[in-house]
Amino acid sequence: MIHEKKTPKGNRYTVMPGKKQVVTLFIVCMFPVFALLSSFNYGFNRVRGEILAPYKKPVSVGFRISRPLMFSDIHNKTISSLIIMGGNVPPITLKNCSHIRITGNKLYNSTQVGIHLYRCKDIIIDHNYISNVSTGVYVQQTNGGGIVITDNQFLNITGPLPRGQFVQFNNVNGPGCLIANNTCENITGQSYAEDAISLYSSNGTPTSPITVKNNRIRGGGPSKTGGGIALGDAGGSHQLVENNILVNPGQYGIGIAGGTDLKILNNKIYAKQNTFTNVGISVWNQYTRTSGCAMIVVRGNEVNWTNARGEPNPAWNNGNCGTVVGWDDNNWNARIDFNILPFVLIKTRGR
C-alpha cells in the first residue's frame, strides 16, 4: 500500500524547486503508466486456454494467514477470509458443531482433507478455494441434515483411496443437504482422484432429497475404479443428481451402486478414450447382500462416452435395480464434446 504524506496545506505532494521538482513530477506522471503495465501483465497470465497452477505463496489483500483450525461443540460462527496451509492436518475441522458458515477462504496443501465435518449439522460451505488436498470436503456421521456446499472452487485432489473426492458424504442423513454450483478440476499429473462427488451410505428425505446439481467437473483418473458422481454407494436413499456437466471425469460419469429413490436427470457427460474410461452412466446394485435397489429414474441426460477400447459406451443397466424409469428418454449418442466446459475453468483463487 502507498501512503501519501500531506503537507500542512493538505497538498499530496510538496513541490520543490530545481531538480527535485522535476523528479517529483516525473514520478507523479509515470505512476499511472506503471500501474497500467502491471495490469496488462496480470491479464496476459490468464489467456484463454491456460490452466492455472495451485498456490505456492498466497498473498491477497483482505485475507489473513491462519494456522489450521479445529473447533468442537461451537455454534453460530462464521469462518471467513483466511488463508490456511494444512500440512499434515486438515485446514479446517469441525466436530459436533452447528449453524456454522465457512466462506471465502483459501485452503491448500494438506495431506489430509480440506474441510472435515464430523457429527455436524446446519453447516454452509461456500465461495472457498480448495486445492492440493486429499479430499476437498469430507462430511461424516451427520444426522441433522442441513449440509450445504455451494459455489466453491476445487483444484487437484490428491487422494489416495479411500480419499480422492471433491466432496464426499459418508453417513449423512436428513433434509436440506445440497452440493451445488461448484467448479471442480483435476489436472493430469497433479492429482489422483477417485470419485468427484460421492454419496456413501447417505439418506435424504422423500420431500428433501440429497441434491447434487449445477456442478461443473473436469478431469479424473488414472484410478480404474473412480469417476464422476456416485449415488447409493453402500446403499442410501432419496438422492437427486441433475444439471451437472462432466468432462473426462474418470472410469465412469454418473453411477448408481445401490439404494432406493435415486434420480439422474438432465446431465451432460463427455469422455474421450483413455486407459481407464469405461461407461457414461451405470445402474448396478453392487451391494446385493446389504442394500436393495429400486425406484430409479434416469432421464433427459446427454452422453458421449468412449471406453478404453475406443468404442462408444454411453450407458449400462445391469438389471438388478428393477425397472429404470426414463431409460429410453436419454440421448446416448449426444453430439457434445469437451467444449461443454470452458478452456479455463478455475478462474480465480478464492473470492
With helices defined by DSSP (H or I, 4 residues minimum), what is the helix count?
A: 1
Based on Cα principal axes, name the global outline. globular
* Cα gyration radius (Å): 24 Å
Tally of distinct domains: 2
| Structural class category | mainly beta
Tell me briefly what this model is:
7% of the residues lie in helices and 41% in strands.
Description:
The chain is mainly β. The protein folds into 2 domains: about 1-45, no CATH class; about 65-340. It contains 1 helix and 29 strands. It has one helix at about 20-45; strands at about 65, 70, 75-80, 80-85, 90-95, 100-105, 105-110, 115-120, 120-125, 130-135, 135-140, 145-150, 155, 165-170, 180, 185, 195-205, 210-215, 215-220, 230-240, 245, 250-255, 260-265, 270, 280-285, 295-300, 300-305, 315, 325. The strands form 2 sheets. The protein has a 19-stranded parallel sheet that branches. A 10-stranded parallel sheet has the order 1-4-7-10-13-16-19-21-24-27, with no helix packed on it. The protein is globular. Mean pLDDT is about 85; it is low at about 1-30 and about 30-60.
